[in-house]
Amino acid sequence: MGEKFIKLWETKNKNDEWWSSFVTSPLAILLNWFVVDIRWITPNLLTSISFLVALLASALILASALVLTETRQAFIGAALLINASLVLDCMDGQMAKYRGVSSRFGSYFDKVTDQIKIFAWFGAISYASFLQTGSIVPIFLAFTGVTFYSLRVYVKYVTIFIEVEHDITYLEKSSREAAAINSQRSKVGGIGQGFKQNLFWFLGEQRKFFLFNEAVFVFILSVALLFNVILPVLWLFAISQLYYGFVRSWQRGSQIHNSQHDELLKPMEK
């Protein structure tokens, strides 16, 4: 396993999101060890399967809520499927890097399906909560959360577009900056590092929970489904996305207005 596993580990995103960093991404590496050399399994096929599994999870939530039978078992199944979808989502990028076949379309396909998953998951659990409570509040919370999460994504990419529009070397310079930062991150933890170093890395990763991005959504959705606490999780989702939507809009707008272009060369958080 050694050499192949190390090569696969090197494909791991050096700045993985919280739940991905130490749960789904390592699981994806283990699964890739078995399938990465099977040529008919392609990164885009894994992206497609990940998307279908995510939709199946949403359908399972809706079906159980509509018929109001076996809800507990269905919610547990949906939580497992949501996590399986994220594992597959990690596998596609790792496989592409391992094989040296990363493509523009693959990246586009991955990001578009990720956005649809967020809508499908939160749309499903909010409707399930509406059926349970008879209140419109869960629908409103999910709508707020998805809208402002989409704003976070939009602000990131419109900022990049504006910088490129005014500086044709922006992407080249930002790529160099990202490579330099990632080279430092690679020394923080992982294969070949000691227990103490990896422990510090693990503890440092916990701050990413408070960024409330896609991998955190998978975790809180799992909590909502496993413990049937959908409404509190929807409140958390809506408030966190409302906060980050406004904060990122103000932050990027301020950096652009004050010509802080060096700051905008650094990898941007959504």
Structure, explained:
The protein is mostly helical and 270 residues long. It has a single domain (2-265), classed as CDP-alcohol phosphotransferase transmembrane (TM) domain (Four Helix Bundle (Hemerythrin (Met), subunit A), Up-down Bundle), CATH 1.20.120.1760. It has ten helices and no strands. It has helices spanning 2-9, 18-35, 43-67, 71-99, 104-133, 137-166, 170-185, 195-205, 214-226, 230-257. Helix 6 runs parallel beside helix 10 (230-257) and helix 9 runs antiparallel to helix 10 (230-257). The model has no long low-confidence stretch (mean pLDDT 92).
- Shape field: globular
Question: What's the count of strands?
Answer: 0
Largest sheet: none
Report the β-strand fraction as a percent range.
under 5%
Helix content: over 70%
CATH class: Mainly Alpha
Classified in CATH, the superfamily is CDP-alcohol phosphotransferase transmembrane (TM) domain
As for the CATH topology, it is Four Helix Bundle (Hemerythrin (Met), subunit A)
Assembly classification: single chain
Tally the helices. 10
How many independent structural domains? 1
Give the averaged pLDDT, no decimals.
Answer: 92
Unreliable segments (pLDDT under 50, ≥5 consecutive)? none
N-to-C CA distance: 36 Å
